[in-house]
Amino acid sequence: MANRPLAPKLIATRAWVPGSADAGLSRSLLSQEEAAKLATIATISRFRRGDTIYTAGTQADAVYIISSGLVKVFRQDQPGSQILIFAFALEGDIIGMADDGAYSNSATAANNVTAYRIPIKSLRSRMLSDLGLDLALLAKLVHELRASQRHAFILSERLVANKIAMFIEMLEQDQASRLGLTPEEVHLPMSRRDMAEFLAATPAAITRGFKTLEKAGILRCRDNHHVAILDQAGFTQLVNGSLHPGGDVATRTRNGGSRLPLKRSGSR
Amino acid sequence: MANRPLAPKLIATRAWVPGSADAGLSRSLLSQEEAAKLATIATISRFRRGDTIYTAGTQADAVYIISSGLVKVFRQDQPGSQILIFAFALEGDIIGMADDGAYSNSATAANNVTAYRIPIKSLRSRMLSDLGLDLALLAKLVHELRASQRHAFILSERLVANKIAMFIEMLEQDQASRLGLTPEEVHLPMSRRDMAEFLAATPAAITRGFKTLEKAGILRCRDNHHVAILDQAGFTQLVNGSLHPGGDVATRTRNGGSRLPLKRSGSR
DNA sequence: CGCGGCGTTGATAAAGCTCAAACATAGTGG
DNA sequence: CCACTATGTTTGAGCTTTATCAACGCCGCG
């Protein structure tokens, strides 16, 4: 049973319960038993790249637990107006939040997606009888809320280069917590345009932001979907918003590089 | 409804359950019974304006349900660096989210605050036995998540005047759902500086944004804490991001004063 | 009465958006 | 296999908004 991919997984980190052992690690929130029970009320849905999974404002009859693929959860008030992507959902994420019975945002598949579709009614009745499921959803929602606040924090940044750095750090942590180790390269599974719509910027600004970070020696892009962090110290400072990439990073030779080896410093 | 102020209240709107009757209305999520049970494990805390309620990174031993007053929930990475206010919490809100046993953001009282302090341990044991409490927290978290996404959406706006309009609309809806009717004036209980820190702008920009909205005839400020919406249609368009206040309002003199939608479309 | 925080107003500079065109990369059908 | 189209990405030039920095008025408070 352990190696079968046929039961939904819900992934999150611990919230109030301190767990120093696996701090920062994602755990599966559902016991096998609970996952199996959920599987009995779920159906498997498949979506192709670009497919609409649900649309904001329509009646919310089901939530989806992503099994594989990448889903963009977004909001667009008027057709043709600005889009803001709220989250990139992947395996172990649950989507389909509703407000007064209607989906409060939209979701489309960014590539081929398989997901468990769980009707709300079944879920509700199941929740009333199964406390563990309840607590799992609670933990997942806390996780989501934190992620959303982090998103807001990224959006509050003024310079696009900083936003990008924070975005990459977010993906890095996510991947690290899923894999259990920090990968050499961070994988950016979405397009530049998607990044722009997540970071509230234009694709052009995203391109230039990456260029800025590369020129500053902070990171290196193998291609548009794989970046390596070269200057971890400078990167962290960027993420913490304490300095601006254009000016100070180059002049950071004063204090910075004591903790980690810098590959190349201050080439200007 | 009830006149006993001695039990905690949790306020939220409905999520998946459609309730066409009281759509958009806040409901108290706890039955009197549950509230009473919660009260037995809660203690009342009082804070004065400026007091710290908890600090990010410290051990999270309790959550707080606000009974009265205004609390700023915020994050500040480095002392002296940028602050982002995530939420203004008031009566019926719950604060104290944690990550791996530590508070993930900070909270201070914006004025005199009374709150129910509920130790995590008691809450957990209570949750395991009381399913209703569980579901109430779930509903509240969905509410919070939506609020956070809305915040992100506001932050994604480029022009400060639009941000302000969306912020006012947010407060208006909140007040309307609490009162059960749309008030004539929207109350802004926080300072300009707090708004700036919520909207990721500077106080100066906030001032100028309000000026812009007033000059455009969208709203009128009785004082710094009370605004009335004069042009509901224009206001709504601003909130939906379909129209730029600076551009169109300035060009209005050329166009002879007619309010024109001027939306952009991708047709070529 | 002086002090410090807040709010407003004014100049300047920087960063990003808009618009637009060149470029790259698929996917498609001949 | 190739043109051909559609989509995404990059680059460039001009314009707008806001951050920054500063000064000033206001108010409450010691």
Order of helices and strands of chain A: EEHEEEEEEEEEEHHHEHHEEH
Report the top-level CATH class of the largest domain in chain A. Mainly Beta
Spatial sequence of strands, sheet with the most strands of chain A: 3-12-5-8
Model regions low in confidence, pLDDT < 50 over at least 5 residues of chain A = 248-268
Terminal CA distance of chain A:
57 Å
CATH-scheme architecture of the largest domain in chain A: Sandwich
Would you count the extended β strands of chain A for me?
A: 15
Return the CATH topology of the largest domain in chain A.
Jelly Rolls
- The chain-level structural class of chain A is alpha+beta
Residues in β-strands, percent of chain A: 15-25%
Biggest sheet of chain A, open or closed, and with what strands and sense? Answer: 4 strands, antiparallel
Overall body shape of chain A: globular
Q: What's the oligomerization state? A: homodimer
| Spatial extent as radius of gyration of chain A | 20 Å
CATH superfamily of the largest domain in chain A: Jelly Rolls
Structure summarized in a few sentences:
2 copies of one chain form a homodimer. The first copy, chain A, has 268 residues and is of the alpha+beta class.
Q: Which keywords apply here?
A:
homodimer, 268 residues, alpha+beta, Jelly Rolls, 7 helices, 15 strands, 35% helix, DNA-binding, Crp/Fnr family transcriptional regulator (chains A, B), WH_DNA-bd_sf (chains A, B)
